[in-house]
């Protein structure tokens, strides 16, 4: 590798770790907000998912008229209707939707925990990788808490536990980013 291409690669790596650190701080701030206002966070999640369903329904409707035969059009329109109705339900009944979303969030956090642990085993030789393992373990614990206390704690648990998960994700990314920065600093001499 030439000196010029090494310099360009190092600059790109520094930019990437800089954005990684910014994202880590955003995760931490969002996590703290969700912990301090769990009901607001839970309602916000329900409303966000409702809007995403509606946008997904519009996307299916647009895709329906891009050709492909009558069966494709029928199923795209059907999917659009289901997405829009689901989104409207979430927007009109956010408190009721929290119960359903609580189970969904539990499943997602459990999956994230598994992925973080797998990432740890793939990167365990790298500095700071222990934070990935810690984040994965905490995610598994939080996902299990949501799952096993459903539905009684849906109103407050979803915001609090998602907030803790966001905070831990931010902390893990922050520590991993600092380790990457130290590695880059030692590589440049």
Task: Count the E strands.
Answer: 0
Order of helices and strands: HHHHHH
For the terminal residues, how far apart are their CA atoms? 17 Å
Class computed from helices, strands and strand pairing: mainly alpha
Arithmetic mean of pLDDT:
87
Tally of separate domains: 1
Give the overall silhouette: globular
Taken as a percent bin, the fraction of beta residues is: under 5%
Whole-angstrom Rg:
21 Å
Largest β sheet strand count, sense and barrel closure: none
Runs with pLDDT <50, length 5+?
none
Supply the number of helical segments.
Answer: 6
Essential attributes:
single chain, 189 residues, mainly alpha, 89% helix
Please tell me about this protein's structure.
The protein has 189 residues and is mostly helical. The protein has one domain (13-188). It is 89% helix and 0% strand. It is built from six helices and no strands. The protein has helices at residues 3-36, 38-64, 70-92, 94-123, 130-148, 154-188. Helix 3 crosses helix 4 and helix 4 (94-123) runs parallel beside helix 6. The protein starts with a helix and ends with a helix.
């Amino acid at each position: 590798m030439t000196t010029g291409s090494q310099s360009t690669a190092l600059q790109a790596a520094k930019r990437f770790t800089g954005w990684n650190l910014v994202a880590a701080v955003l995760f931490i701030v969002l996590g703290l907000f969700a912990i301090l206002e769990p009901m607001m966070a839970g309602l916000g999640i329900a409303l966000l998912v409702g809007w995403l369903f509606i946008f997904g329904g519009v996307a299916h409707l647009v895709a329906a008229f891009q050709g492909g035969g009558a069966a494709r059009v029928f199923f795209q329109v059907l999917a659009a209707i289901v997405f829009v109705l689901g989104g409207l339900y979430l927007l009109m009944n956010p408190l009721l939707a929290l119960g359903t979303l609580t189970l969904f969030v539990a499943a997602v956090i459990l999956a994230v925990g598994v992925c973080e642990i797998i990432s740890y085993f793939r990167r365990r030789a790298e500095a700071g990788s222990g934070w990935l393992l810690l984040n994965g373990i905490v995610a598994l614990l939080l996902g299990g808490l949501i799952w096993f206390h459903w539905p009684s704690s849906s109103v407050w648990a979803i915001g609090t536990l998602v907030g803790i998960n966001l905070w831990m994700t931010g902390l893990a990314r922050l520590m991993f980013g600092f380790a990457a920065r130290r590695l880059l600093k030692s590589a440049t001499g």
